[in-house]
Amino acid sequence: MADGALNLTLDDYASAKLAEKAKALDMSPEQLAILLLGQQLFDHEDFTWMNGDPRKPLPPFDQNEPTYELEEVLAEFSAELDRRLAAKA
């Protein structure tokens, strides 16, 4: 099983539910099974979180912190992206 291959045999009920839900999500039953197993087996302790544990609550919102209009931020981002792409050319 080193290559990640695994064969599972589901009972009729689980197989039918998996197929029904996969169809509703426009996925194959195999894709949905991989997604669901990944969610169930995921363990936060298996990873190092660069910005801290995502399960911990965020600090309270500081109403005195500056805010920016979306259009202003997008314009600045776009200009910086254009500058970097031009530098690469």
Written overview of the protein:
- This protein has about 90 residues and is mainly α.
- The protein is built from 3 helices and no strands.
- The protein has helices spanning about 10-25, 30-40, 70-89.
- Helix 1 (about 10-25) packs across helix 2.
- It starts with 11 loop residues before the first helix and ends with a helix.
- The model has no long low-confidence stretch (mean pLDDT about 90).
Please provide a brief summary of the model.
With 89 residues, the chain is mainly α. It contains 3 helices and no strands.
How would you describe this structure in keywords?
89 residues, mainly alpha, 0% strand
Report Rg.
23 Å
Helix content: 40-55%
> How confident overall, as mean pLDDT?
92
Low-confidence parts: none
Largest sheet: none
**Could you say which overall geometry the principal axes of the C-alpha atoms support?**
elongated
Number of strands: 0
The tally of helices reads 3
Strand residues, percent: under 5%
Structural class: mainly alpha
Distance between the termini: 46 Å
The run of helices and strands is: HHH
Layout: helices, strands, pairs:
Layout: H1 12-24, H2 29-41, H3 70-88
Helix pairs in contact: 1-2
